[in-house]
């Protein structure tokens, strides 16, 4: 049997294979972040191929304050649960599991979208957009932690099989994690242990909200690939702590440079060095994404032990039948 087609179980959630569609923003939601007909149609098209083990839906804001774009999806209020139930039911009818990614944009939010002052770990945070923002207070942090927990509760009520905490691509939690962004001098800044303090509080709050048997995933932007940024040593220590705190699966991506790595363009699975190092340090499953477009590469990365699951993003975004063609190609190659 192909490595890619082997089933896999995470905290009682059994995936029919190891192929994952990672979160990719579609801007199809209603202006308030509610599920729209276009949202459901998009995900049904992806699930209808019936070759995906798991879909992780695009990042959903947990507070209006943390909204990243005008048509981003949101799980910030109870009135959105019914719409998400429609979405999960649609995906489930094709035999595919689905996880909700929960996010706060932090310093990457834009006030013209949120209508609020932008917040970040510290006022020295590096920003691409020049507008006023303020450092988060202890009360702000408590509000965000609770908002992650409430959004996770809504996701579970809406029928999602798991939730994923977003700490990558220089969004809020990733900003706290990275010394490139985090210049706080209190208990949430400075040492690596302090910079992930908010993560541990979020993990604990989410776990309390969803229960002991519900899968909790975390996407980490491991490295910033920049002077003064997060390193693989930071990532390994953080991932060990996340496992101890109760995370069931680690989804590895980038930090300050987003979901790419300069200098690794064209590499299949360009986060493989990071996932390989992390897999050697933790006992929970690791998901690898990043430039994977070739079925043989996905199979080889699993065989090499670089990851437990493979995320294929842009290729599936462009071609909803990529999975079906990939499995057919791999089986043909196997029988030759």
Describe, in plain words, how this protein is organized in 3D.
α1 runs parallel beside α2 (81-92) and α4 runs parallel beside α7. This protein has twelve helices and 13 strands. It has helices spanning 37-47, 81-92, 111-114, 138-157, 172-177, 192-195, 197-210, 232-245, 272-279, 295-303, 314-318, 322-335, and strands spanning 8-10, 13-15, 19-21, 54-61, 73-74, 97-103, 118-120, 133-135, 162-167, 216-221, 249-253, 286-288, 309-311. The two termini are 14 Å apart. The protein is globular. With 336 residues, the chain is of the alpha/beta class.
Note the gap between the termini: 14 Å
Estimate the mean pLDDT confidence.
95
* Strand arrangement across the biggest beta sheet: 3-4-6-9-10-11-12-13
Helix-strand sequence: EEEHEEHEHEEHEHHHEHEHEHEHH
- Which structural class fits the helix and strand makeup? alpha/beta
Discrete helix count:
12
Radius of gyration in whole Å, from Cα? 19 Å
Main sheet: strands, sense, barrel = 8 strands, parallel, barrel
Low-confidence stretches are none
Helical content class: 25-40%
Q: Give the beta-strand count.
A: 13
Residue share in β-strands: 15-25%
Overall body shape: globular
Question: How would you describe this structure in keywords?
Answer:
globular, 336 residues, 8-stranded parallel beta barrel, alpha/beta, 12 helices
């Amino acid at each position: 049997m192909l490595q890619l087609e082997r089933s896999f179980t995470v905290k009682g959630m059994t995936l029919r294979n190891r192929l994952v569609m990672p979160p990719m923003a579609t801007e199809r939601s209603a202006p308030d972040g509610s599920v729209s007909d276009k949202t459901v149609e998009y995900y049904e098209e992806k699930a209808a191929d019936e070759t995906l083990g798991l879909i992780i839906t695009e990042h959903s804001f947990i507070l209006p304050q943390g909204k990243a774009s005008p048509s981003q999806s949101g799980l910030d209020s109870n009135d959105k649960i019914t719409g998400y139930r429609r979405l999960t039911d649609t995906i489930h009818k094709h035999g595919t599991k689905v996880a909700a990614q929960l996010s706060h944009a932090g310093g990457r939010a834009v006030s013209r979208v949120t209508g609020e002052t932008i917040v970040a770990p510290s006022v020295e945070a590096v920003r691409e957009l020049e507008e006023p923002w303020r450092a988060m207070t202890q009360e702000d942090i408590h509000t965000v932690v609770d908002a992650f927990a409430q959004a996770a509760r809504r996701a579970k009520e809406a029928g999602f099989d798991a939730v994923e905490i977003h700490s990558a691509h220089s969004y809020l939690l990733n900003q706290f994690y990275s010394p490139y962004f985090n210049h706080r001098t209190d208990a949430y800044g400075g040492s690596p242990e302090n910079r992930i303090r908010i993560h541990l509080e979020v993990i604990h709050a989410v776990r309390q909200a969803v229960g002991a048997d519900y899968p909790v995933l975390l996407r980490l932007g491991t490295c910033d690939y920049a002077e003064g940024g997060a390193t693989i040593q930071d990532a390994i220590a953080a991932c060990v702590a996340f496992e101890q705190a109760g995370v069931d699966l680690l989804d590895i991506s980038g930090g300050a440079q987003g979901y790419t790595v300069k200098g690794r363009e064209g590499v299949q699975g360009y986060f493989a060095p990071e996932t390989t190092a992390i897999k050697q340090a933790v006992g929970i499953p690791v998901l690898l994404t990043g430039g994977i477009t070739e079925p043989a590469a996905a199979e080889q990365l699993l065989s090499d032990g670089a990851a437990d699951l493979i995320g294929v993003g842009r290729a599936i975004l462009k071609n909803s039948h990529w999975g079906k063609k990939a499995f057919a190609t791999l089986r043909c190659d196997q029988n030759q």
